Amino acid sequence: MSDPSRPIRTAAVIPAAGRGVRLGPGTPKALRTLGGTPMLVHAVRAMAASRAVSLIVVVAPPDGATEVDRLLHEYPLADRTDLVVVPGGRTRQESVRLGLAALPQDIDVVLVHDAARPLVPVDTVDAVIAAVRAGAPAVVPALPLADTVKQIDPRPQGTPEPVVGTPERALLRAVQTPQGFDPATLLKAHDTVVEGEGATDDAGLVERLGAPVVVVPGHEEAFKVTRPLDLVLAEAVLARRRATDGYV
């Protein structure tokens, strides 16, 4: 049983070991610059902006942990937030599992955040944390869809694909990060669900356990920087923040 007098501790795990090939060749995606600062630094700052987050674990490329650790320490955080860098694995799920292994036993809420979502507002982070603290084992921020979605029968690339269904858009949400979890639930999901069984995010692993996942409102600025056009949009958002909010 947890000690009610002990402060609730929240940690964030940021997997940043991917290459990000859709952004083009060169530096790993998380280390691409946004407004002159590496995208990973923005993502770390976004988690540290929440006063509830006391520990951030960055999961670096397996052969680049020393470089990432050196880079991040060039951008110090407030004293209330500790930062740890660990080497990642071959896949995202393996990297998240390695990040979870680096957490101390006294963590009550764990966030998993995409390094490629550098501009998530602190209100979104805090909303996810609050929902986990209120008792939800898994929480995702999400937005209603603007576009109609079609289910298709896949064909080879470039070949017309038959439509087999149109899901009701009002019942769908586009999921973002950070996703928040009760640590025991997330650890069980990673230990139980075999990689490649269809889950594309950590909440999906929890769903496969049969545990409930709830949605809180996401934010339009929490988009994922995946393609070159996303980088243009992110630069525009960052420029507006710096001009109006004093954002660094």
TrEMBL record:
The record marks 169, 224 as: Positions MEP for the nucleophilic attack. The keyword Repressor does not apply. The record marks 22, 29 as: Transition state stabilizer. Its EC number is 2.7.7.60. It is an enzyme of class 2 (transferase). It comes from the Bacteria. Pathway: Isoprenoid biosynthesis; isopentenyl diphosphate biosynthesis via DXP pathway; isopentenyl diphosphate from 1-deoxy-D-xylulose 5-phosphate: step 2/6. PANTHER family: 2-C-METHYL-D-ERYTHRITOL 4-PHOSPHATE CYTIDYLYLTRANSFERASE, CHLOROPLASTIC (PTHR32125:SF4). This is 2-C-methyl-D-erythritol 4-phosphate cytidylyltransferase.
